[in-house]
From TrEMBL:
Any Pfam family matching the protein: Neur_chan_memb
Protein name: Neurotransmitter-gated ion-channel transmembrane domain-containing protein
Regions that span the bilayer: 40-64, 71-90, 102-125, 178-199
Organism whose genome encodes this protein: Mytilus edulis
GO molecular-function terms, A-Z: monoatomic ion channel activity; transmembrane signaling receptor activity
Amino acid sequence: MFCCVGTIHKKTWELIESSVTKNEDLQDLEFSMTLKRNPMFFVLNLILPICVMITLNMFVFLLPPESGERVGYAVTVLLAIAVFLTISSGNLPATSSPRIPSISLLLFADVVISAVIVLMVILSLRYYHRDDNYPVSTFMRGFVNVSRIIRCKVCCCRRKQDKYNKDLIKWTDVGKEVDIVCGIFITAVICIVNALYIIDVTVGLPGLDLL
């Protein structure tokens, strides 16, 4: 029996230190052990699949709006993350004290990001397929012009900027600019969320101890 327990211990946990304390007043001994979990199982079966699925979310804005698969793609990734959250919850400790596990917070953030991506895709497609008989509002024309100016300054493409100044802004242009802005925004958010997770599991974030 003890050999079996020892074998499981070696595969799952690593013994860091142990100590025994004797209480002089009472006839008892206090044993304490410090264990470290071997992380490779969770890295391969939990963390890496999460990173792959949330990375797939960013590529939804690269799909052509004419394909008709953008909403389905975004919803499929959202459902995949939600199902994976349900499956992985069995391997996570069901506790909130002293704090919620970092991987649970990462999964929740990924679900929220995926839901926001679905809303962004629906919004951009609504603009892209809007009838040109409806005039583009002043606010949306300003949004398109500002987005184009910023991108032209970043890529230093003077010829493209001159072409944009001559073109008439249509609803398809509004949809394309919304895709670009949303794609950049979501990419930045995903990078920040993953960076915060890495910092939390390595050095810890004090603010998360209150959760």
